[in-house]
Amino acid sequence: MLIVAKIFIVLVAVLHFYFLWLEMFAWTTKAKKVFRKFPEDLFEPTKTLAANQGLYNGFLAAGLIWSLLIQDSQWQMYVALFFLSCVAIAGIYGALTASKKIFMVQALPALLGIVLLLLSHFL
């Protein structure tokens, strides 16, 4: 169970590194294909805002990777739970305010990671 939880942690981290790249470095190119409902004329004016958002996604990814490198199993779990919770909360907020798809892409994998971590700890 713990191995599956760690796979979800890696999955969520990879997704957030992708979000970092998309929002910081590909906002005016590749992001247009991902965010189809966003008006095309707003990509250039919002480039700095998207980069800021991407940076935050990078911090979440870095925290998740860091959690996997911690030697103490209890401390590792606490750090992973913190960062997965941050991702889940951001995903739920995004689903409520921007697009329901955000729940499936961002919040659900994080919530599954939380459940798997807790099950591995208590079983």
Question: What features would you describe in this structure?
Answer:
This protein has one domain. The longest helix is centred in the C-terminal third of the chain and has 25 residues, at 73-97. 80% of the residues lie in helices and 0% in strands. The model has no long low-confidence stretch (mean pLDDT 96). The chain has helices at residues 2-25, 31-34, 47-69, 73-97, 101-122. The protein contains five helices and no strands. The chain is elongated. With 123 residues, it is mainly alpha-helical. The protein starts with a helix and ends with a helix. Helix 1 (2-25) packs antiparallel against helix 3 (47-69) and helix 4 (73-97) packs antiparallel against helix 5.
Give the tags.
single chain; 123 residues; mainly alpha; 80% helix
Number of strands: 0
Helix content: over 70%
Number of domains: 1
Average pLDDT, rounded to a whole number, is 96
Number of helices: 5
SSE-based structural type: mainly alpha
The biggest beta sheet, please? Answer: none
Radius of gyration: 15 Å
